[in-house]
Amino acid sequence: MTPRTPAPEAGEVAEAGEAADVRREPHGPPGRRVPVRRLVVVPAVSAVLLAATYLWISQVPLDAIARNALAGGNAWLRLWQHVRLTAVSTFWVLLIAVPLGIALTRRGLRRAAPVATAVANVGQATPAIGLLALLVIWLGIGPSTAITGMVVYAVLPVLSNTMAGLRGIDPQMVEAARGIGMSAAGRLLRVELPLAVPLILAGVRTALVLNVGTATLATFVGGGGLGDLITTGIQTQRMAVLVLGSVLTVALALLVDWLASLAELALTPRGLEAG
């Protein structure tokens, strides 16, 4: 007869199950899962849009005026100018709006918050082309005028979101940080700002997209950018030049918003992600 193997005791079964669970669990903190749709859709749409535009322009007969507008890497130059205008203006928006938003939520400057918000609202409520025209009187023609107008136009989303993010923090968390001996700077850097990051990043994302659109108006103040292609296409009635400038602007706005959404996801502290 074959000897019977004794059945394992309940304690041994539990220990074996726990050991198997330990082996199956990954070590370290769980990574963030980015939906494939979020990674693929916008770049794919932009690529299809650009490819279709390229194929269409390559099939359209171009006269000397259209060829001159698109020759010599002119489209790439205008695209680079557009990206530079957007990046520089957004940098100045961050440099102004985030510290100002922090300052206006501190006890000594809270009374000035409505005034600052009203001024920022006026800047965004003013039509962008009218604002640029007024700045030309003061600053003259050039990229600096365009950048100044873009900063004034885009400062409101970052300023208001910074203030809203800091004001929305649970006061008990700030009091708890104060209770364990944190300084005011420590509470701001280690408690308040990390909790306000999602709203601040949402404001930065909005400002970026606003600046991509507003940069097309830089052509009217000598700032360059893709607006040069659009206005050239309109003035000379060359559809290929107009379509190329418009499509590049749309594709750039889509890609900038996509990159900003990924940065927003990556920079948001763990546990604060939406959804």
From TrEMBL:
Protein name: Permease
Low complexity composition-biased segments: 7-19
UniProt lineage: Bacteria, Bacillati, Actinomycetota, Actinomycetes, Kitasatosporales
UniProt-annotated stretches for the region Disordered: 1-30
PANTHER family found in the cross-reference section: GLYCINE BETAINE/L-PROLINE TRANSPORT SYSTEM PERMEASE PROTEIN PROW (PTHR30177), OSMOPROTECTANT IMPORT PERMEASE PROTEIN OSMW (PTHR30177:SF4)
Main location: membrane
Keyword Protease: no
Presence of keyword Methyltransferase: no
Source organism per UniProt: Streptomyces lavendofoliae
Similarity comment: family membership: Belongs to the binding-protein-dependent transport system permease family.
SUPFAM superfamilies named in the record: MetI-like (SSF161098)
InterPro entries to which the protein is assigned, alphabetical: ABC_transp_perm/SBD (IPR051204), MetI-like (IPR000515), MetI-like_sf (IPR035906)
One of the GO BP terms on file: transmembrane transport
Membrane association type: Multi-pass membrane protein
Keywords noted in UniProt: Membrane, Transmembrane, Transmembrane helix, Transport
GO annotations of cellular component type: plasma membrane
Gene3D superfamilies: MetI-like
Cellular compartments annotated: Cell membrane; Membrane
Residue stretches making up the ABC transmembrane type-1 domain: 79-260
Listed transmembrane segments: 39-57, 85-104, 210-227, 239-260
